[in-house]
Amino acid sequence: KIAATIISEIGEIDRFNHPKKLVAFAGVDPSVYSSGRFTATQNRITKRGSRRLRQALFMAVYCGIRDARKQKTSDTVIPRNRKLREFYDKKRNEGKPYRVAIIACVNKLLHLIYALLKNKTTFQELA
Question: Phi, psi at residue 45, to the nearest 5°?
Fold first, then answer.
């Protein structure tokens, strides 16, 4: 259901000639506020794109980084999407707050979706 929402909200991928334009369409690009010599240190996302797309991407990242159920025989925790979880953990270890790390993962996921749709390939997670 999330994937169908993302695909339908993006529409035709040929409208975007760069992944950053897709990120801007989704409204998860950072807004830069500066005036004279002042430059803000905390920048919010622009939210200028599709609200449904942002919500679906947030939920996709949330589901991707959360842990799958533990196996009963061991205490190892397996994330649902290992690459996305590693990127999330890297951002958290850099000292980024939870939502900043999630939006960074959304940005990375959008770049991945752009590449998959442009090349007309299917997603295959490396083992």
Answer: -75, 155
Q: φ and ψ at 21, to 5 degrees?
A: -70, -35
Using one digit for the tens of pLDDT, what is the confidence trace for 61-92?
A: 999 988 776 666 666 767 788 889 999 999 99
Residue type for 78, please? I
d(CA 56, CA 1): 9
| 78 vs 11, residue with greater confidence | 11
Strands (E), the chain: 34-35, 38-39
| Domain definitions of the chain by residue range | 2-119
Q: How many CB atoms lie within 10 A of CB 27?
A: 17
CB 7 within 8 A of CB 22: no
Please compute, for residue 43, the number of CA atoms within 13 A of its CA located in the half-sphere on the CB side. 15
Q: Assess whether pLDDT exceeds 60 at residue 1.
A: yes
pTM: 0.85
